[in-house]
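quick one, two chains, predict together pls
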Amino acid sequence: MITLNVNGIQRSVKASPDTPLLYVLRNELGVMTPKFGCGMAQCGACSVLLGNQEIRACITPISALEGKEITTVEGLPARWARQKKLPPPTAGGALHPVQEAWIEEQVPQCGICQFGMMIKVTELLEANPKPTDADIKAALTTSGPSPHLCRCASYAAILDGARRAAELMRGDAS
Amino acid sequence: MSAMDSLSIHGAQLSRREVLQAGGALIVSFSLVPAASPAADSASTGRSSGSLDAARLGSWIEIRDDNSILLRTGKCDFGQSSIYTAYRQIVAEELGVPVEHITTVVAGDTDSTPDGGGTFGLLRGAQSLRKAAAYSREAMLGLAARKFGVARESLSIRDGVISGGGQSATFGKLVVDADLRLTIPVRGDLTSFFGLQVIGDPPLKPSSAYTIVGQSIKNPILRPKISGETVWVGDVKLPGMLHGRVVHPATLGSTLVSAGKLNRPRFPTAKVVVIGNLVGVVAEDEWEAVRAAQALAAGTKWSDWKGLPTHGKLPEHLSRKVNWDELPATKSPASKGDAAAGSKASRRHEASYFFPYMKHAPISPTVSLADVKSDGSVVLHTHSQNPQFLRRGIATMMGKPLSDVVVRTYPGSGHYGRSNGGNAGSEDEAVLLSRAVGRPVRVQWMRADDMQWSTSSSTMLSTIRIGLAADGNIETYEAEHRGPPMQDDRLIGAVLAGLPDIGAPTPGNGNGLQRLSLGSRTGGSTT
């Protein structure tokens, strides 16, 4: 039996070790924001953070993840609260600044790719609080196993969301 | 029944069913007006159908005594969120209430929405609700006139309050303790491609008086999506469900020679289902189903079929195989001047552009869950732009009455028009696998299923003629688009399994979008 650390909680899972993380999160642990898009690490809809780095849950077997810290969009508010030494988040309360920026800028259309987008932008902004547009574009296109794809083509809104999220995370938001 | 209990509202009927002890509402339902001429609705059966209780669930608008208002629409959300923003604005505008009063939008489910029809074209799709709202506003004014004992003409509406003759009342106050039914006229066929439309001529608010339509409002469904609360179709779990995958044929025309076998120790719960040329597998565990489908595909033999031209030969193939004049060309509404007589123009540009078949390619391949009960009735959970038309296709495939099929809809990946005709893949296959194994089945299409087997946008040939004046400005412009009937909405699983389907689109059968007039039709001149 493998133990996974998902959003700060130790979870024992019954799935066979070769099972990709995506199926374990969604079917065994009830963590639903990572979405199935291609199953081949080519779209980014299933992205999660492994420590501080984005990975594609659809191709990563859980055997590679024992004891490592996995964060999904569900865990972003608590991650932010820990980093900023804030009280733990409450249901219906403030979300992670990247999520709040996504709502402020009304980024999503259908929205099914946006969980992966927010994971990628969180990875970027934790490492680079003041990214240029080129940095944001590089993060979402050339830095990972594939570009993060949005078939609604909300890319301009995603750029707005990332810029706004950077402001919110730096605390210099107007 | 006293005079108070029935009121004619521009052809709609307002009635009071009974006096309630508590609560109260005005509920807008409909009565069906037969199509004016059979030709106008040649594809339809000219009737509503089965499972909808027109008096209760078939209501379009509910005005409650706490001033909250509920809308119901058979249209769904595919990312523009029009049903949660623009539809609420349009109805609020016609009613004369703040948009925030419209607290609930019930969308898509075939057993709880009134109209059906495809989710395409906001301005077309919202007209029925706009008229329903206009009938409702007139009914509220009629109620207020009686309550206040003043003439209808002396009343005005502002922010959900009706005033006149020195009195005023909120919408909620006017429906308190009453069970009011407004019955409005509609036309069409619930499960046809275009569904039902509200007809008649209730007075509509002039656009010059608009205060809500045209304003930018926030999309209320984004926060629950972003926070992770929203249940997407792929997130639905049915009690006792199995995970299914389908092994599609090697080519479009291949038939099954023999299905592969599964190694029991490797796939302890997997079960193979074969119905005609439909090969599928179900398992308790999703990853087992994925691996089993791969193993099954490797051992499954299909007949050779080489009926498709290569990509490079597609235009030539189509020029021989397609009757490009079977449907009249669609002429661009932007056309101006007489391009054919454009000899006066100092410069002319004329070219034809060939569009191949196009994939809509949602980022998440379609996923559906079906629960076929032992009596053969079906509840299908999916994400569809036309759930009532899908319901018709499923009922046709199953040989069941429409009343035995319910389609429930959830948020999902954008379809970009692909499921205008109901299906986007996986729905019917989930139904067939569920029927075969007697348990609910969730079928997730994989990326390859989507790219090879999903509905495509049809090919098109566009001819553009432009005449430029001496100063370089466009003097004449003509654009014509022609193509075969589109789009083919037959259920793939039904076709593979050899079961009844709705038929390929033809100019006569009303399937597909060819009957939707995008612009004026021309007789079709050719270049």
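The CA atoms of residues 141 and 147 of chain A lie 4 Å apart.
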